Amino acid sequence: WVWVSSALQTCSKRRFLACSEAPGSVTYMCGRFLLRATPQSLSATFPGIQFQVPWQARVNIAPSQSVLAYTGGPSGELLRWGLIPSWARDEKIAYKTINARCETVHELPSYRGAFKQRRAVIFADGFLEWRVVPGQKTKQPVLFTQPGGAPFAIAGLWESWVDADRQVIKT
Length: 171
Description:
Blueprint: E1 2-5, E2 8-10, E3 16-18, E4 32-35, H1 39-45, E5 58-61, E6 66-70, E7 77-80, E8 99-101, H2 109-117, E9 119-124, E10 126-132, E11 139-144, E12 152-157, E13 160-162, E14 168-170
Parallel strand pairs: 1-8
Antiparallel strand pairs: 1-12, 2-3, 4-5, 4-10, 6-7, 6-9, 9-12, 10-11, 13-14
């Protein structure tokens, strides 16, 4: 799967608005997120979706790891983060396709087919961004969550890719 986001501008009280055309806009493209929610809290937030697939609560979900997603049908499933287009020769492309910009996702060959036919909802309850700390060489993580820590959905795309051993990998 790949995370689809827009350029965002930081607004007052840590809210974000889609402002890709805004002067001085800042682009946030997530590289880490977390999902600590229980199946019960996800079912309450997203009624009609069953969460029967086993997953562990995690606070540092990174590209190439399995994530909880909804691709249609009655229940959620696990997908590997990093889109591998069906035409790709090897899976290394997945390291370059963890995020897609909504402004160009319909144009780029890596995402075009999935954008037209294979959309997903990725479940999270927070994401991390990194900020520069003046006077230090290291960056500090900043956690963004909903008020009260409620789970939310992230727009995504998914693909099925067949590896050299003929195993289907859902990304």
